[in-house]
């Protein structure tokens, strides 16, 4: 294995919660030195829960391979340290409250005057300008503003996505935006100002329902775990559990009727002749399917689906995901050091023949303060 691709890149991050830490953790995975600037009470994600042997699951997920320095940014010493860190950094990442980075004296113009090669990266809820600029933005609230809850849930009630999807989307675009700017800097020699809003990041992921509603005249209906515009697609009850599968075309529909249901006649039934008609007649369609699958064990249904070449899945809980045979077969788990011992962690999803992700320790609050200050010549 060769050197990690971001070895030699220094990232200074005034980060908290999820979005910015997710972006910088991925930079750290690729070999960047990520210096996480925390207040004396630490990133408040450290206190979200205590499920990982007393540490927060959020913090463990988002902060491996980083160095933690505690700075009092209301003091001259703290500001001096941050100034020296930014002057020597390649990337600055921040997701502080709107206007906070400018009040500290490290807004885009000031920071690039100090360090013209800096990639100055800001993540916010709604972006600069407009009446929402200073509006508080939490993940669920951005899910609402981006229209996600209008298409997620049941016909009777909306439901949020069970993970911090708006934060993750923003963190992913910050990560890719920083990589793009580093490539551009290699050509131009100049730094850049990168801005990502959670609303716009999640809005990109909402483009398909937007187009569907904007030009189709009506928004997609909330359909629970069913697909709003494909049938059959989603969960179906077997005799001893639930199976998920999806039909993509008429060839698959015919094989499903013959191999899985042992009802070849259904493939010729005019009530189900084409996906659009099946969606219209979803209640009758499901009745016909449930009449067969409800008498079969889930293992047999999944076996028939595999034999027919129909995409399917087992509904797993998190413990079953942890034991997933495919992740074990591909050797995707590694141990990461932490203040509470070794923690089994999943490798990042991008694999490379040349390098493997760093997977360094999760830091204690302020663990690296003295060493970093000494590097800066500050007592």
Q: Which spans of ≥5 residues are poorly predicted at pLDDT below 50?
A: none
The CATH homologous superfamily of the largest domain is termed Crotonobetainyl-coa:carnitine coa-transferase, domain 1
- Give the rounded overall mean pLDDT: 95
CATH topology of the largest domain: Rossmann fold
What proportion strand? 5-15%
Sheet with the most strands: spatial strand order:
3-2-1-4-5-6
Order of helices and strands: EHEHEHEHHEHHHEHHEEHHHHEHHEEH
**Total number of beta strands:** 11
Explain this structure to me?
The chain is α/β, with parallel strands linked by helices and 379 residues long. It folds into two domains: 10-206 and 328-375, Crotonobetainyl-coa:carnitine coa-transferase, domain 1 (Rossmann fold, 3-Layer(aba) Sandwich); 233-316, formyl-coa transferase, domain 3, CATH 3.30.1540. It is 40% helix and 15% strand. The chain is built from 17 helices and eleven strands. It has helices at 19-29, 57-62, 76-87, 100-103, 108-114, 139-145, 148-151, 165-188, 198-205, 207-216, 250-260, 275-280, 282-293, 298-308, 318-322, 325-329, 369-375, and strands at residues 10-14, 33-38, 66-70, 91-94, 119-124, 192-197, 233-238, 241-246, 311-314, 333-336, 343-346. The strands form three sheets. Strands 3-2-1-4-5-6 form a six-stranded parallel sheet, with helices on both faces. The protein has a three-stranded antiparallel sheet with strand order 7-8-9, covered by helices on one side. Strand 2 (33-38), helix 2 (57-62) and strand 3 form a beta-alpha-beta unit. Helix 1 crosses helix 8 (165-188), helix 8 (165-188) packs across helix 9 and helix 11 packs across helix 14. The longest helix is centred in the middle third of the chain and has 24 residues, at 165-188. The two termini are 38 Å apart. 32% of the residues are buried. The mean pLDDT is 95.
């Amino acid at each position: 294995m060769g050197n990690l691709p971001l070895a030699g890149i220094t990232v200074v991050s005034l980060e908290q919660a999820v979005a910015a830490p997710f972006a910088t953790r991925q930079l750290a995975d690729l070999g960047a030195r990520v210096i996480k600037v925390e207040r004396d009470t630490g990133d408040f994600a450290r206190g979200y829960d205590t499920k990982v042997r007393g540490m927060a699951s959020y913090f463990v997920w988002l902060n491996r391979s980083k160095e933690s320095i505690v700075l009092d940014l209301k003091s001259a010493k703290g500001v001096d340290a941050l100034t020296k860190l930014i002057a020597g950094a390649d990337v600055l990442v921040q997701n502080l409250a709107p206007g906070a980075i400018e009040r500290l004296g490290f807004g885009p113009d000031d920071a690039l005057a100090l360090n013209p090669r800096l990639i100055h990266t800001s993540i916010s809820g709604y972006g600069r300008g407009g009446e929402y600029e200073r509006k508080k933005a939490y993940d669920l609230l951005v899910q609402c503003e981006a229209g996600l809850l209008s298409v997620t849930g049941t016909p009777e009630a909306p439901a949020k996505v069970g993970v911090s999807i708006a934060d993750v989307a923003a963190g992913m675009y910050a990560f890719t935006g920083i990589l793009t700017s580093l490539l551009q800097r290699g050509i131009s020699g100049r730094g850049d100002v990168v801005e990502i809003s959670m609303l716009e990041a999640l809005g990109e992921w909402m483009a398909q329902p937007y187009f569907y509603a904007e030009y189709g005249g009506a928004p997609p209906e909330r359909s629970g775990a069913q697909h709003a515009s494909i049938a059959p697609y989603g969960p179906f009850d077997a005799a001893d559990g639930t199976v998920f599968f999806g039909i993509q075309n008429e060839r698959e529909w015919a094989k499903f009727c013959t191999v899985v249901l042992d009802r070849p006649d259904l493939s010729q039934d005019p009530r189900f002749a084409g996906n659009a008609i099946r969606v219209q007649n979803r209640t009758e369609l499901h009745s016909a399917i449930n009449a067969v699958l409800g008498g079969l064990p889930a293992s047999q249904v999944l076996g028939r689906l595999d034999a027919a070449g129909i995409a399917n899945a087992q509904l797993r809980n998190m413990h079953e995901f942890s034991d997933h045979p495919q992740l074990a077969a591909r050797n995707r788990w590694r141990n990461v050091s932490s203040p509470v011992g070794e923690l089994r962690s999943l490798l990042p999803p991008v694999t490379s023949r040349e390098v493997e992700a760093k997977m360094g320790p999760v830091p204690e609050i302020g663990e690296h303060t003295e060493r970093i200050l000494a590097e800066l010549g500050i007592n």
